[in-house]
Amino acid sequence: MSAASVSRASPVLFEDCVDSTNLYLRRMADTAADGTAVVAASQSAGRGRMGRSFLSPEGGLYLSVLLRPETDPERLPTLTPAAAVAVCRAVDELCGVHCGIKWPNDVLLDGKKICGILVESVLGGEKPCVIVGIGINANTASFPEELRPIAGSIAEASGRRVDLHALAEALLRELDGLYAAWLSDAGAALEEYRSRCASCGREVIVGERRGFALRVGDDYSLLVRFSDGAEEALRFGEVSVRGLYGA
Ligand code: BTN
């Protein structure tokens, strides 16, 4: 991939291999311009949610964007689902497919995870910022056995190789557009998120508890009715969804 044909107001850096595109931008947090993006062909220490690692071989797209939103920090959790919608739009438009979302922010194709998103706040430095990190299994050839029921690639689902440069370009365009909309309205992606959310209307397991996912709330929480009749709005965490990821 080269930077030549990505036209965008903010800088886009292309790297072959980095430890993690999120860490890469974190190291630039005091100096990088708002909107700076880095795209890598692979990562040696890709980071996932909840302290997990994120497998990042060649064939995938690993992209992070550094943002400096001047906003109430309470709005920040709504940035992650907006990013998930941006990924869906970019993949749909480029690959002629229709992506769904497993709450809170796994992007799905044919019931398998093709993308993970990790949004991290960088506080305490001279200039606070938020880093939105996105890893897409675009042409990823194979997955370790334990991930096979969960993870898939766009190429596997669509039967066609993905042009990674075109995907990076489409993704940055959709991210930039939705971010601009999000700055004035934190719910800018809400209706589309709801329509793509594959967790609703299914049985779920949350920790040891079984329930039924009813709907996505106005704050992107997942409203679950548990088997004892109690209803709770989940704001973060892991939910197993019957019918997805082999559950
Ligand atoms: C998850 O599903 O657990 C989130 C995975 C996020 C992975 C992306 S890849 C680009 C960016 N750099 C990282 O180290 N992580 C994110």
SSE inventory with pairings:
Layout lengths: L11 E7 L2 H6 L10 E7 L17 E7 L11 H17 L4 E3 L3 E4 L2 E11 L6 E8 L17 H5 L5 H21 L5 H7 L6 E4 L2 E8 L5 E5 L4 E4 L5 E2 L6
Parallel strand pairs: 1-2
Antiparallel strand pairs: 2-3, 3-7, 4-5, 5-6, 6-7, 8-9, 8-12, 9-10, 10-11
The protein binds biotin.
The site of biotin has 18 residues, from helix 1, strand 3, strand 6 and strand 7.
Strand runs, count = 12
Regarding quaternary structure, what we see is single chain
Strands of the biggest beta sheet: in what spatial order?
A: 1-2-3-7-6-5-4
Shape: globular
Looking at the structure, the CATH topology of the largest domain is BirA Bifunctional Protein, domain 2
Question: Approximately what portion of the residues adopt beta-strand conformation?
Answer: 25-35%
Poorly predicted ranges (pLDDT <50, ≥5 residues)? none
Secondary-structure-based class equals alpha+beta
User: Which second-level CATH architecture of the largest domain applies?
Assistant: 2-Layer Sandwich
